[in-house]
Design a protein that fits this description.
disordered N terminus; 7-stranded mixed sheet; 5-stranded mixed sheet; homodimer; about 35% helix; alpha/beta; 9 helices; about 25% strand
């Protein structure tokens, strides 16, 4: 847990995921001037523990009068603090109906941003809608496809300010599961990168995506027989998995204007991968999009209260 | 650990994998009349612990004179009891050169069956070569492709008594990693099956294998939005993963005579999957092929000693 020195916040922005909790103290002009984070993710909390987990981070920022918190992410799921029912596509990324969480503290008001659902094919997001709203707040007439790489990467078609359709890929989670919980844990280095190995593996997979199941064990066998090093293995595994994703997501990126909202270094891997396909994406930082999206939600909340 | 009542063995057959150790007491006519197993797999043992782990199982069967043990599997790997260097394809499944393990017990002789390597594309097997040898001992003029489903499924082209080429797929390990260490753990039941869900998912994946990366998260989303039940999710995940394997292994099974050496229920899933592709495989039980293969190795050892 880290926390900057306490000062009253005009309001507080919160991104509450499955594994992490992040909060930013916001001033009246809409800038964040302090931040705090902890590992009290939604996945480790019972419903009655959310308020304490939040107060541990934000108490130094609370005003003498009520402070408003606007939060996005998994805290709005059925297993979270309060269920914020999904909006359904096509819809604007920020629903007008933020959901108030039950709070005991007399000086705290917490509002949760709903996620978005798509009935066919079934898909859901919680948190990414806020990043998309942040991006569209900065780029109000932007049409195209937004890629949000992460544990569960999303490809999102946006038109006229609305989310039209989207698809989720478990690419990040597959990478983690394979490198921690399969025989590849002996082969893939924990850090390091090699562009050529990544791009070769990506190209192999995009040209013959039906071969993906045959490629994974080859990393182990090449390490055993031919001394494949762990850094190359890491970059190749990423190339196979991102290549498999791009093969399946082709309708989303082919001939489209693309923005990538993500953290480094992964956002950079997607940029490289798309560029060799002739697509030149715009890259933006995910955390700033989250804050901007939460600020948009907060300003609408002020307008309606 | 389980162990039948002690009686002298003519020799002892051992299958020593990464997670399990199995031993069979064999009589002079080549039949197993007692068995024992423990969870002292290769992965949990240091080199100097193998002999004790084996003696814990087989001491009741030891003769008053020296007893021969013939063993296959991961105990022959670099991290095992003694490294038994790979034979290289094309080669007969059982190398003539069994490797003696270092043993302190005065009445014990342990011989290890070498695995098989393929340099290009890089691939390795340890244990499956013994099952293949068992199958070929029972079917001496058989040519075709042998599929050995498991944690690491192997597809093996056999001709004129030799292993010509093979390819490994991490299908079983992927299934375990996804159902234990990804968001799908909330969605996929630990047991149960639905043929229709399996076959639909298999057919989807075989007709559009490039979509595999898009299918996995759909299980989670359909459970959240449309109440997909855990048993269907389990069968569908198997269908996606086996479908992806069959798509990549097509050169191995298309137009070939196929034998599946495996345990139930998984061998049955492969039978179903192949039958809808118009292939009618022969199914054999993996444990009996292991014992038969080890008996073949033992009889050759006797002939050379």
């Amino acid at each position: 847990m880290s926390n900057s020195r306490g000062t009253d916040a005009d309001w507080i922005a919160v991104d509450w995921g499955t594994t992490n909790l992040r909060a930013w103290a916001m001033n009246a002009s809409g800038s964040d001037y302090a931040s705090a984070c902890s590992s009290d993710g939604m996945g480790s909390l019972a419903r009655d523990q959310f308020e304490d987990a939040l107060l541990k981070l934000i108490t130094p920022w609370l005003q003498t009068e009520a402070t408003t918190v606007v939060a996005c992410g998994m805290l709005g799921s059925r297993q979270g603090w309060v269920e914020a029912p999904y909006a359904t596509v096509p819809c604007t990324p920020l629903s007008d109906r933020l959901v108030a969480a039950p709070v005991a503290h007399p000086l705290l008001k917490v509002y949760v941003v709903p996620g978005i659902r798509q009935n066919t094919p079934a898909d859901v997001m919680r948190g990414e809608e806020t990043q998309i709203a942040g991006f569209l707040a900065l780029n109000p007439h932007w049409d195209g496809v937004i890629c949000l790489p992460g544990t569960h990467t999303k490809w999102v078609l946006v038109s006229a300010g609305e989310v039209i359709s989207f698809q989720t890929f478990m690419t990040g989670e597959l990478f983690t599961a394979l490198t921690r919980h399969s025989v590849l844990r002996h082969t893939v280095a924990a850090h390091g990168w090699q562009d050529a190995a990544f791009l070769d593996a990506l190209s192999d997979t995009l040209s013959k995506p039906e071969r993906i199941a045959a490629r994974l064990f080859s990393l182990r066998a090449e390490a055993l027989l031919h001394g494949l090093d762990g850094t190359s293995a890491r970059a190749r595994l990423s190339g196979y998995l991102i290549g498999s994703e791009l093969a399946a997501a082709r309708p989303y990126w082919l001939g489209q204007q693309i923005a990538v909202i993500g953290a480094q270094p992964v956002a950079g891997y997607y940029r490289q991968a798309l560029e060799v396909q002739g697509v030149r994406p715009t890259i933006t930082a995910d955390q700033q999009m989250t804050i901007t999206g939460l600020a948009t939600a907060h300003s609408r909340l002020k307008a309606t209260v």
